[in-house]
Amino acid sequence: MTQLSKSFNSHLPRDGKDSTNSNQQVATLSSTQLQRLNGLLSSGQRYLIGQDAKQVYQNGVSLSAALNGKKGETRMLLAAELTRLVRHVAATRTFQGEADIHDAVDDICEVFPSMKVDEILTCFKYIRQGVYELYGNFTINTLIECLRKYEMANTVVFREEEHRQRKRLMNTAAFDVRRLMSDLENDGKLKTSRRLLDRTYIPYPNDKTDAKTQSTEQHEETTSQTQRPKTNEEGTEGTP
Questions:
Q1: Which of 69, 121, 138, 207 would you label with 127, given CA atoms 20 to 30 Å apart?
Q2: Using CA atoms, how far apart are residues 230 and 238, in angstroms rounded to an integer?
Q3: How far is CA 107 from the centre of its chain?
Q4: pLDDT at 139 over 50
């Protein structure tokens, strides 16, 4: 664990611009997410004891958010838990050193950014408990395949259920708005249509009806002005 810490700390931002950005990114996590992430960093899989797959999905912190907030600590957590898993399944031949652990963590971060950190650790536990058959061979490819199986069996199902609930809520809200407008219209509480308002006091320059009315009024005014001098001339000729 100490060797992993030193190795991962070498990739952490030091001073200057990168370090400042790293500190600012921590603020992007909500207080609840930050508290849960800190619990995972301090306790590992023990923090998830007593939680089923649905609770882990609902309360977990996505891997992308954890990496944005605490990249070095999150990678070190995955490396430490993977090292324990390798030891439990006796896969020391395929994972012979830290480089192999680093490669596996890199692949997890690249392939499963939307999975929750909690889900990844739960999948590690399932592998240790024999939920996924390893056939005596545990490699990075086998690990990725186990994570895919967990994602399809749990994460995707919960996402689709969440999407259906949101869609149902939006449809209910839209129906409530239409019903409210209908009730207000029946009670006569809706505003009068803008076409029925008094155009003398409320002009609408973009309204075609207003433009047509204005052009008609201008034409009538021009006609009256041209006819007015003729009337005056006729009156002058008629006077003795």
A1: 69
A2: 13
A3: 23
A4: yes
What per-residue string of b and e applies to 158-188 under the rule 16 or more CB within 10 Å gives b? Answer: eeeeeeeeeeeeeeeeeeeeeeeeeeeeeee
Distance of CA 56 to the CA centre of its chain: 18
Boundaries of every domain in the chain: 2-161, 204-238
Q: Is the Cβ–Cβ distance between 107 and 145 less than 8 Å?
A: no
Tokens of 179: 């019903």
Which H or E element spans position 27? none
In the predicted structure, residue 185 carries a pLDDT above the cut 80 = no
Q: Does 173 have pLDDT greater than 90?
A: no
- pLDDT tens for 189-232 read 666 555 555 555 555 555 555 555 556 666 666 666 666 555 55
Quote the CA–CA distance of 165 and 81 in Å, as a whole number.
Answer: 34
